[in-house]
């Protein structure tokens, strides 16, 4: 039996479905797995990051800015005609929900703890990331576009 190369989409609707399927969301999933992997490290095995950063809240904010940005990018590509504030709100909600569950999970790891301040840093970072990506998307002229690029 011969290997058959996949045929190109028959229509623009098929191409759009491919763009908006799992391929669109896998970076978000991979990033969430990375966050959970880092959260799974017991405190005794963690490097002392305070040598580099005096405050771990900056690390939390940067980590979740990436997640908020990725979520916003997926949302604007999937639902192009959403208002920018809705895009940011959806990205923030999803990232904050994940951040809350991550903080609860960290409380189960030996030597680690859950902190409402860490959650606040996560949510703040997610908002910044989502806002930056949404603003870039608007400035690039892609907002409201029906193209599937």
Task: Describe the protein's architecture and organization.
The longest helix is centred in the last third of the chain and has 24 residues, at 116-139. Helix 2 (22-39) runs parallel beside helix 4 (84-106), helix 3 (56-78) crosses helix 4 and helix 3 (56-78) crosses helix 5 (116-139). This protein has five helices and no strands. Residues 4-11 have low confidence and may be disordered. With 149 residues, the protein is mainly α. The protein has helices at residues 12-20, 22-39, 56-78, 84-106, 116-139. The chain has a domain at 56-143.
Fill in the keyword field for this structure.
149 residues; mainly alpha
Task: Assign the structural class, choosing from mainly alpha, mainly beta, alpha/beta, alpha+beta, or little secondary structure.
Answer: mainly alpha
Main β sheet profile: none
Our count of helices gives 5
Mean pLDDT, to the nearest integer, reads 83
Give the ordered list of helices and strands. HHHHH
Q: How far from one another are the termini?
A: 34 Å
Task: Compute the CA-based radius of gyration.
Answer: 19 Å
Q: Which runs of at least 5 residues are low in confidence (pLDDT < 50)?
A: 4-11
Strand proportion? under 5%
Principal-axis shape equals elongated
| Helical coverage, percent range | 55-70%
Number of strands: 0
């Amino acid at each position: 039996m011969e290997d058959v190369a996949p045929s190109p989409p028959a229509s623009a609707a098929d191409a759009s479905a491919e763009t908006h399927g799992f391929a669109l969301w896998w970076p978000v999933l991979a990033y969430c797995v990375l966050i959970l992997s880092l959260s799974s490290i017991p405190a005794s095995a963690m490097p002392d990051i305070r040598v580099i950063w005096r405050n771990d809240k900056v690390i939390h904010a940067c980590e979740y800015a990436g997640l908020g940005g990725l979520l916003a990018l997926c949302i604007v590509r999937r639902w192009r005609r959403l208002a920018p504030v809705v895009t940011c709100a959806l990205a923030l909600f999803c990232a904050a929900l994940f951040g809350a569950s991550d903080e609860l999970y960290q409380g189960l790891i030996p030597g680690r703890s859950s902190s409402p301040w860490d959650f606040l840093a996560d949510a703040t970072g997610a908002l910044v990331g989502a806002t930056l990506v949404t603003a870039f998307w608007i400035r690039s002229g892609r907002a409201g576009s029906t193209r599937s690029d």
